Amino acid sequence: xxxxxxxxxxxxxxxxxxxxxxxxxxxxxxxxxxxxxxxxxxxxxxxxxxxxxxxxxxxxxxxxxxxxxxxxxxxxxxxxxxxxxxxxxxxxxxxxxxxxxxxxxxxxxxxxxxxxxxxxxxxxxxxxxxxxxxxxxxxxxxxxxxxxxxxxxxxxxxxxxxxxxxxxxxxxxxxxxxxxxxxxxxxxxxxxxxxxxxxxxxxxxxxxxxxxxxxxxxxxxxxxxxxxxxxxxxxxxxxxxxxxxxxxxxxxxxxxxxxxxxxxxxxxxxxxxxxxxxxxxxxxxxxxxxxxxxxxxxxxxxxxxxxxxxxxxxxxxxxxxxxxxxxxxxxxxxxxxxxxxxxxxxxxxxxxxxxxxxxxxx
Amino acid sequence: xxxxxxxxxxxxxxxxxxxxxxxxxxxxxxxxxxxxxxxxxxxxxxxxxxxxxxxxxxxxxxxxxxxxxxxxxxxxxxxxxxxxxxxxxxxxxxxxxxxxxxxxxxxxxxxxxxxxxxxxxxxxxxxxxxxxxxxxxxxxxxxxxxxxxxxxxxxxxxxxxxxxxxxxxxxxxxxxxxxxxxxxxxxxxxxxxxxxxxxxxxxxxxxxxxxxxxxxxxxxxxxxxxxxxxxxxxxxxxxxxxxxxxxxxxxxxxxxxxxxxxxxxxxxxxxxxxxxxxxxxxxxxxxxxxxxxxxxxxxxxxxxxxxxxxxxxxxxxxxxxxxxxxxxxxxxxxxxxxxxxxxxxxxxxxxxxxxxxxxxxxxxxxxxxxxxxxxxxxxxxxxxxxxxxxxxxxxxxxxxxxxxxxxxxxxxxxxxxxxxxxxxxxxxxxxxxxxxxxxxxxxxxxxxxxxxxxxxxxxxxxxxxxxxxxxxxxxxxxxxxxxxxxxxxxxxxxxxxxxxxxxxxxxxxxxxxxxxxxxxxxxxxxxxxxxxxxxxxxxxxxxxxxxxxxxxxxxxxxxxxxxxxxxxxxxxxxxxxxxxxxxxxxxxxxxxxxxxxxxxxxxxxxxxxxxxxxxxxxxxxxxxxxxxxxxxxxxxxxxxxxxxxxxxxxxxxxxxxxxxxxxx
Lengths: 362, 664
Fold this sequence. Notes:
The complex is a heterodimer of chains A (362) and B (664).
Chain A: H1 33-36, H2 49-63, E1 71-75, E2 90-93, H3 99-109, E3 114-120, H4 121-127, H5 129-138, E4 143-148, H6 183-189, E5 194-199, H7 203-215, E6 220-225, H8 237-240, H9 245-248, E7 249-252, E8 259-260, E9 266-270, E10 276-280, H10 300-306, E11 316-323, H11 329-341, H12 349-353, E12 358-361
Helix pairs in contact in A: 2-7, 4-5, 6-10
Chain B: E1 10-14, E2 16-24, H1 29-43, E3 46-52, E4 67-75, E5 88-91, H2 94-100, E6 109-113, H3 119-124, E7 141-145, H4 147-155, H5 162-165, H6 169-180, H7 186-195, H8 200-219, E8 225-229, E9 237-243, H9 244-259, E10 263-267, H10 274-282, E11 289-292, H11 296-308, E12 312-317, H12 319-335, E13 339-345, H13 362-367, E14 377-379, H14 385-400, E15 403-409, H15 410-414, E16 416-420, E17 440-441, E18 447-448, E19 474-476, H16 491-506, E20 528-533, H17 537-549, E21 555-559, E22 561-563, H18 569-574, E23 578-583, H19 588-597, E24 602-605, H20 614-626, H21 648-651, E25 660-661
Parallel strand pairs in B: 1-8, 2-5, 5-6, 6-7, 10-11, 10-12, 12-13, 13-15, 14-15, 20-21, 20-23, 23-24
Antiparallel strand pairs in B: 1-25, 2-4, 3-4, 9-16, 14-22, 17-18
Helix pairs in contact in B: 1-6, 4-8, 6-8, 7-8, 9-10, 9-14, 11-12, 17-20
């Protein structure tokens, strides 16, 4: 178990964009959770869902044999964006909305790194929406974890692009008029090659989703339902609460029929009108239950799965919606560079300066 | 076909000539002008060019809005500007004539495509009567040449449809002008073959039209003579003709090689900076990574991310893009990472004049961020100077771990000049000086890495890149504790950090060249210093030459480093009672100089989207010299040779004083 993912797809050992960079490749001793925690005291509100996400990460990385020096956490602004300060890796706390842009440059310049992007729902979907969709579309080799708490926490409680319609907040005292984004639908619409959802109440599931996302070469998008116990407490309680979880969370497992409920008595099937619907599973309907295929190139069924719940108050799929292998952007860049460099005198600056017509004066 | 094969015509010698090709934006005037310049450069003239084109790709044909022009100034001596006024104007249609005729001095030569002067075209161009017939051009030497019909006749044998063949008329014009100025033809014919290699019929039509234009000049009894502009005596070396944008892109590649850092360009297309993105995108063989980002913000954001990863992060833009990048540049100030921001200035505010030149982003570069966020600002003064300026920007960025704004502008970006190529070996290396080990010991004797422990000399912080074991650290836009780099809200620490960032940038003054004044006169005899920056160099230097040619004394200082200023600038300014600062803005450098040195700078402003003319600078200097406040010693230095002064206004015509009969 210890080093199974060391040669992960996210952090390739094959290429180092910066030929002159220092940095060793010596064997590293196994690490523990403690090695991944920085000396900074986490300052989220007591009871914040971010703590359990941080713990999941600090447990996962030593478990899969990741290396601190080749791991970078990049964040924007917001509560979630403090995450890098608490990891003893390389980290950048950038500016609001721009983390995917910053990480895009970093990942293209350094294909050898394991670049994580930590963003909130306001950060990723409001001020940084443009960068998010383009990072996904380009399939930049980064892992984006979007902590979705459906609220602005750091600015003390305004509605966000994922807040439910009618939400009463400081900036919507009469209720929000806006239709929220469905982050999974958005990511699929943006051509994302890896799309998953998890939640802060299930450490094991988070770790598995983070591991899978990291393993994926290209852009990975993981929505994490995260409770803000101060400004939006219980936003996901109807689906993630221990008592309701089995009946309201629909686990997506590749190659398995999509079933849920205490005894798997419910299932997701194609309904007559063409969309997906929830059916009671019995002998007559068992064959109709959809078998989950996360590798399906056509994202339309994944998209339909993302639309199954109107919000986190009715049965909601979690797990990997889509995981398809496409060339990542940086690999394409490196391929073009390698091809261009293969010609003689490819990097002869003196020849470049003489590439237009020249003349001599004696 | 060479000059020596000419029969009936005499050939006169000129020391220099300014030619403007003008037509509809679809007429290929930029191509014709550019090729004329290339042939002249290869022939050995000194030259400068000024392309002037509309923002619209194809404005309505035949209208004033759609006129595109290319001015080229060729000479047998060192010149500095594309010329104030054309000696020869080629006007392909009435609109081109209407838009440009006002720039012609009496006696100038006008060659028009007579076929295009029909009633409809005249009306479109805003003419109520035909200028060829109403006597309004009688101050000019006018040649009416039926270029369209002669092009059609010449191209008939290619079988091209008339509509296609007509498009070769720019080559007819190029051929005629090439004859008129005895340019070698082989270069252009070979260039046509290469450029249109994939379109045999077009190549043939263009070649035939070009030859027809040449032959028309030679055989028509229209022109009494043609002209020669001899080779210039340039410094020995290998030359190429380069635009500012190309030179800048090559400078970035050079900086990558000199530093050993892979170049990463994050950029969003914007006029007039896009050609830098295009050029660098072609240069993958140098390991250059380019990203056409989703917006200006991602352009600079990705570049900064690449810098964090140990690359040379570069972003290129124009004014509107600089606005959008401001927040990320502030982050770079806080992160103290190398970053080169290229602003190819254009007319503003807002979308302004996308294809026209201006220098109005200086204060934006200096102060366009919230908080105290100083950064170095440098500006190229010539197209080829963009190469050196890019290397210098990268040097400062890497050495001092700071974003640097490099200012170019539309006239440098698209203007060309012969460039004596540097020896690559002569360029100084840039040491990235990456951190490789811990730099601090904590209370328990444990080694650790402090990302904000400054170098005592440069005041720069260490640059530790991901992948380096043991130097893992977290940085961000929040204020950092001096040294340790952890988040700090401590009041005294904030002031210390604000002052440390300012001191670091200010100290760069000791690491840049001293200001060198061009003042050949005995000490104290020049009472006026002309202080410039950026692309006004050519016009100011030419204006200064003209003043000196009148036997008067004047000094010229042209700044490349605008923040910090050269350390001796205050001393230099103190030597001159009057400081004139011509700028294509409302006095931005003037304000900086006033603020820093308490010098009562006289601002000379022009914000018309076109460069200063040498004559305008000359007039401003003469005006200042006549001012009684300037004091007496003002005049009477040894006059500079008229040979080197760009005495454009003195001639204005091909038959003027500088033309020497040479015979044929």
